[in-house]
Amino acid sequence: VQLVQSGAELRNPGASVKISCKASGYEFTKYYINWVRQAPEQGLEWVGRIDPEYGGTKYAQKFQGRVTITVDTSTDTADVELSSLEFDDTAVYYCTTQGSYWGQGTQVTVSS
Q1: Strand, helix or coil at 112?
Q2: What does pLDDT average to over the chain?
Q3: DSSP conformational letter for 29
């Protein structure tokens, strides 16, 4: 199993960012993809998840209205898009599946 994420992003406050996670080595539609993040000197924070088979999503309440998770089953890729970025959204974002497999992380920096 391998999850490969897109590269680091730098955004201004108020902008949006989209991060990709390409999965391989397993049947993509059988397992949820979760997105979590870790801000500097903070613990892990769950952002949301998607069921790749049916496209159903669930988001953490604090991100409701500004996060969207999607999948493309033709490329076995899951994306997370976060809008209206704030300085506190600066973090490393990870995709994870099956409770055991993690992407390498994507640094998102929000700076003016």
Answers
A1: coil
A2: 97
A3: G
